[in-house]
UniProtKB/TrEMBL annotation:
One of its GO terms (cellular component) is membrane. This is Cytochrome P450. It comes from Amborella trichopoda. One of its GO terms (molecular function) is iron ion binding. It is found in: Membrane.
């Protein structure tokens, strides 16, 4: 739900390119053969007609029953036979990354963060996303145990050197 909502508000691919292979009509628009056109992912993801009055708000719960409410207009990875081949990999990697971060850190946004998404080929945060990570206590415990073990090992080594 969180990944879908993030991809809705900030889809890295903001549009997909297509070419009409024959004369056709989409709704009221006539497209002669060979017309090249863009399907705008970004504007559709902010459409109040599709998503309701809170279209601009981050609300992962809107995906609690899948993306059916979007009536087929939610496709951050494209659609059809040329849809993204990396979709499953990208989603799996993102879930693993989020799980690994949450297992080991709490985090908050840096005060230096400036919300400034821009499009240059893909949509990305112009000034990056500086976040502050805090190691969880559990992790700090492991870190201290490791430090103690290292200190012990170093002591043993230096004693051995003296004995030789
Ligand atoms: C969040 C991550 C990603 C997003 C949002 C994304 C989005 C997209 C979109 C919108 C398209 C165009 C689809 C269309 O025209 O219908 C595309 C195509 C493609 N993507 Fe991704 N992609 C992502 C990650 C990846 C990864 C990780 C790989 C490879 C490991 C990948 C490989 C490709 C390839 C090869 C195509 C061209 C497919 C074709 O033309 O047949 N993508 N992607």
């Amino acid at each position: 739900m969180i990944l879908n909502e993030s991809l809705r508000l900030y889809p890295p691919g903001v549009a997909i390119a297509r070419k009409a292979v024959k004369d056709c009509k989409i709704g009221s628009i006539c497209l002669p053969k060979d017309t090249q056109f863009l399907v705008p992912i970004l504007p559709m993801n902010y459409s109040e007609t599709i998503w309701g009055d809170d279209a601009e708000k981050f609300n992962p719960y809107r995906f609690s029953e899948g993306s059916e409410k979007a009536m087929g207009s939610f496709f951050p990875f494209g659609k059809g036979p040329r849809a993204c081949v990396g979709q499953k990999l990208a989603l799996l990697e993102s879930k693993i990354l989020v799980a690994m971060i949450l297992q080991n850190f709490s985090f908050h946004m840096s005060k230096n963060y400036i919300h400034s998404p821009v499009v240059f080929v893909t949509l990305y945060p112009q000034h990056g996303i500086p976040i502050i990570l805090h190691a969880l206590k559990r992790l700090l415990g492991v870190y201290h145990v490791k430090q103690e073990a290292n200190a012990l090992q170093a002591k043993e080594c230096s004693e051995r050197e003296i004995n030789y």
